[in-house]
């Protein structure tokens, strides 16, 4: 929890209370509101209101400093947060009518808060986003290529962390057959100390976190000094864990089977699997019920746009590498792969029809996959299913690629909301980083976050080709 995030949250809480109070005064009048302030039920109602507003704002990424880079993004997230909070509070009031905000107070208070939140966040992002006092300081243990990478992560990719310096690791106690240290590729002026006295280096750098970034630990890892820092309350983590923390994906080049085995994560309790399947069935039935009336219109538009079938079936690789037929609305010419065979779609792909391009951008072509979710071939959230021709190729060149098939593929996924559409092996590697992160950290909260992120992806038209 960074200081920047804490300040943003605290002010938002005050703005929520101010909005609720202002709406109540507008609708009920100052005397009546003042008389109710001492009642216990008022505090409970206000608490539920604040909780719902903050939860909705968090789901909509209004506190994500790396994604809210423009005023348009901020206002869209604010409006989505307002809509989500209204939905959550409506459900809450249905369950417990005793805490309901009547006489239009709910709508007015959310409207006032949305305006105040937008103004406050714009001011905060313009003034405070680059202030180093809001960042956590990172001391990198190591001076080699891996340490240099970690330093770049701090300086270029995340505003919540600031590079405090590097600690040189060259332990004199190693044997002649063991590595005495690693080459120095980081700027010498950023080396603030030595691993032989890591605690002193930490104090000099005023570091909050130590990231162990040694290319080779055997014979050079300063166990005693790192343990001393850990016991003195300084957070210690390795480079892959730090990379995962700031990027939301895994550092494939540095993780090993033992890292996967001993890391926290990669757990799927049986109750979670049952709940996930129940939600998949409910959402797929709801989605099909709402969209089926539009199927004839979509079918007519496809037939008028180009000759060929309305639906498109394609073999995909599912859970435990079992094959299944994936259904979509057809967006390409009927003879799209007669000559080329199986190839990835590209930007401005000539095989895509005019209507198909619109369907892909709006994700309308994915609607029939709700049937796959209902059947159990897919889940609502998970790694996107790939074609078997590509899977066999990617398994040969990308380590751990087959691990993405340990759960059901999804209609949407972490890679889809974090990375644009890919058509190369390099893109497949990047998406695998996100897919493995999802498998490692799978949870109801992450699924909910992906669901709401998908709404934003559709609204902004990101990623489709």
From TrEMBL:
Domain of life of the source: Bacteria
Topology in membrane: Multi-pass membrane protein
UniProt keywords, alphabetically: Membrane, Transferase, Transmembrane, Transmembrane helix
One record GO biological process: colanic acid biosynthetic process
Protein name per Swiss-Prot or TrEMBL: TIGR03013 family PEP-CTERM/XrtA system glycosyltransferase
Parts of the chain that traverse the membrane: 7-30, 42-62, 74-95, 101-127, 278-302
InterPro entries cross-referenced by the UniProt entry: Bact_transf (IPR003362), EPS_sugar_tfrase (IPR017475), Sugar_tfrase_EpsB_2 (IPR017464)
Domain Bacterial sugar transferase, residue spans: 276-459
Membrane keyword on record: yes
One function term, GO molecular function aspect: undecaprenyl-phosphate glucose phosphotransferase activity
Subcellular location(s) per record: Membrane
Family classification: Belongs to the bacterial sugar transferase family.
A GO CC annotation given for this chain: membrane
């Amino acid at each position: 929890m960074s200081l920047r995030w804490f300040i943003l949250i605290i002010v938002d809480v005050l703005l929520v209370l101010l909005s609720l109070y202002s709406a109540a005064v507008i609708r009920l009048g100052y005397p009546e509101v003042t008389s109710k302030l001492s009642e216990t039920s008022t505090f409970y109602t206000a608490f539920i209101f604040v909780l719902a507003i903050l939860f909705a704002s968090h789901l909509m990424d209004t506190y994500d400093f790396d994604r809210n880079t423009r005023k348009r993004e901020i206002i869209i997230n604010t409006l989505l947060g307002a809509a989500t909070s209204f939905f959550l509070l409506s459900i809450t009031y249905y369950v417990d009518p005793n805490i309901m905000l009547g006489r239009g107070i709910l709508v007015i208070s959310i409207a006032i808060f949305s305006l105040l939140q937008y103004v406050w966040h714009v001011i905060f992002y313009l003034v405070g986003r680059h202030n180093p006092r809001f960042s956590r300081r990172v001391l990198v243990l190591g001076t080699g290529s891996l340490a240099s990478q970690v330093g770049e992560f701090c300086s270029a990719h995340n505003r919540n962390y600031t590079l405090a310096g590097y600690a040189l690791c060259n332990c004199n106690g190693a044997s002649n057959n063991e590595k005495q240290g690693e080459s120095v590729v980081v700027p010498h002026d950023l080396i603030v100390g030595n691993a032989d006295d890591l605690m002193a280096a930490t104090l000099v750098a005023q570091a909050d976190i130590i990231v162990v970034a040694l290319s080779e630990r055997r014979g050079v890892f300063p166990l005693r000094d790192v343990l001393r820092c850990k016991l003195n309350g300084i957070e210690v983590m390795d480079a892959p864990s730090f990379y995962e923390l700031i990027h939301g994906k895994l550092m494939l080049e540095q993780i090993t089977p033992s890292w996967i085995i001993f890391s926290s994560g990669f757990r799927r309790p049986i109750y979670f699997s049952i709940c996930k399947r129940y939600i998949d069935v409910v959402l797929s039935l709801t989605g099909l019920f709402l969209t089926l009336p539009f199927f004839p219109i979509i079918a007519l538009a496809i037939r008028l746009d180009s000759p060929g079938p309305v639906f498109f079936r394609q073999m995909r690789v599912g859970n435990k590498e079992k094959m299944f037929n994936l259904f979509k609305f057809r967006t390409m010419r009927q003879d799209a792969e007669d000559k080329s065979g199986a190839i990835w779609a590209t930007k401005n792909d000539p095989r895509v029809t005019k209507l198909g391009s619109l369907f892909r951008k709006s994700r309308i072509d994915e609607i029939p996959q709700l049937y796959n979710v209902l059947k159990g071939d897919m889940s609502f959230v998970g790694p996107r299913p790939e074609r078997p021709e590509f899977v066999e190729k990617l398994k040969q060149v990308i380590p751990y690629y087959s691990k993405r098939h340990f759960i059901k593929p999804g209609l949407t996924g972490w890679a889809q909301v974090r990375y644009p559409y890919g058509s190369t092996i390099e893109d497949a590697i990047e998406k695998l980083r996100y897919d493995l992160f999802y498998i490692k950290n799978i949870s109801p909260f992450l699924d909910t976050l992906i669901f709401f992120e998908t709404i934003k992806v559709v609204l902004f038209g990101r990623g489709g080709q």
